[in-house]
Amino acid sequence: xxxxxxxxxxLLLISACGSVRKHNELQKTSxxxxxxxxxxxxxxxxIKEMHxxxxxxxxxxxxxxxxxxxxxxxxxxxxxxxxxxxxxPVISDIREGHLSLRIPxxxxxxxxxxxxxxxxxxxSRFDYYIQGNRLFIIRNKDSIENIKPGTEILSIDHTPxxxxxxxxxKLISTDGxxxxxxxxxxxxxxxxxxxxxxxxQNKAVIETVYNGEKKIYQLKRESKSEAxxxxxxxxxxxxxxxxxxxxxxxxDSYNRNFRFLDKDSTIAYIQVKSFSGVYSGxxxxxxxxxxxxxxxxxxxxxxxxxxxGSLEEIHKLYSYLSPEPYILIKxxxxxxxxxxxxxxxxxxxxxxxxxFKTLAYPAFFFAQTFSTxxxxxxxxxxxxxxxxSKPDKNAFTGKVFVLxxxxxxxxxxxxxxxxxxxxxxxxxxxxxxxANDGTVAGFYSYQTLPNSKIDxxxxxxxxxxxxxxxxxxxxxxxxxxxxxxxxDIIHKRDPQLNWILNEIKKEKTIK
Length: 511
Description:
Elements: H1 2-28, H2 33-50, H3 60-73, H4 80-92, H5 110-117, E1 126-131, E2 134-140, E3 151-156, E4 159-160, H6 161-169, H7 181-198, E5 203-210, E6 213-220, H8 226-235, H9 240-244, E7 247-248, E8 253-254, E9 256-260, E10 267-272, H10 280-294, E11 298-302, H11 311-319, E12 332-334, H12 351-369, E13 372-375, E14 378-381, E15 399-404, H13 411-421, E16 426-429, E17 439-448, E18 455-463, E19 480-481, H14 486-490, H15 495-510
Parallel strand pairs: 10-11, 11-15, 15-16, 16-19
Antiparallel strand pairs: 1-2, 2-3, 3-4, 3-5, 5-6, 7-8, 9-10, 12-14, 13-14, 17-18
């Protein structure tokens, strides 16, 4: 038995190495134009087959024209990456924020992964801000070269940053005609796109300007110190606090935070950076028990820079915010009764996982087959959140404020749209990046274009908050618009939170 185990392990290792090599060879191969046109047709046919509400923001005729036009421009062989830069802008024109090709890039071996794990990042040691076609450093985590926050990066390896911003902005899909989402998402993904194009490099030359003075720096991928490695090891230990607050080792921060903002505990503050779902029930139970015991009058919920996540988590959170029974979302539309079976059940399974999944498949098939129903000629997926739910016994009954911005996306927008519609909260900040009236996500069918081998995840479920639709085709608009500038971020000022605190102070004075 032990011998067979090592043989299986050896075969898996050989298979993985061969797979990396084969994948990387494909990335360098130019694919004939007729094969690429086949991939365009394949992508469009699968999107039309599976994506509900495909023509919510673009007409059928216009989208047909865009896909036909892109095929006419493909008249020479292209690598998968070159093809991606042609096709993804067309898919982004559908204006569905969750619908996007995965950018093809070189795979790295286990040896290369181990080497990178022992080195610091090069660009990831800074935080960034994008304004128009300009890229600024707003935080220098390790004080590299003493580069000051507010420094603008003019070029990378002698190529203007504006070239990359214009190139990458076209790749980002948004929900409808939203204008606030792209600067946030682009600053977070800028160097992911860059590395996909350039590969993992050990050095880069950047030209910068600060207070009118231009400087050139050479960034290097430095080795981690013993102290760094020790800290990383320590951070990986999962304490109860880390579990409940959803600790993220990569950023050395928590996804969830709860505290009181004043000495007498009248103002409670909950920040959620991601609705990951992990231990969320325990977090909200503890937080709202503390809020009730403190008899807090005000609650501030901060979902700025929260790209979304678990529908189950926002359903749980809403149970603590609604004073009466509620329905979080409307029935969720899918394209067909078979849609839940198109989720690529065996995707990315190694032989051992494949065996276990095969044994469990009958149960999966049975559950998914009976997870849909048909009504008025449309198919819907059964979700607990579309039924009447009761408030939690510790539901907050005081005044609620919610902080939002352009990076409040997906589940964050569903939550805030529902709160605004029910007049349960005052929304402060800027328009959310996610749509007010719903989005297509839920779960995905992972398609692979047959010739370029580019992955295309397609959302299968149209999730709508249980609201009266606004039909604005934009994000959730704040009740109180308050902008945050780059200077505010650098100097750790928070005008949006300060507006709420000042408003609460006024109300307390009147009372």
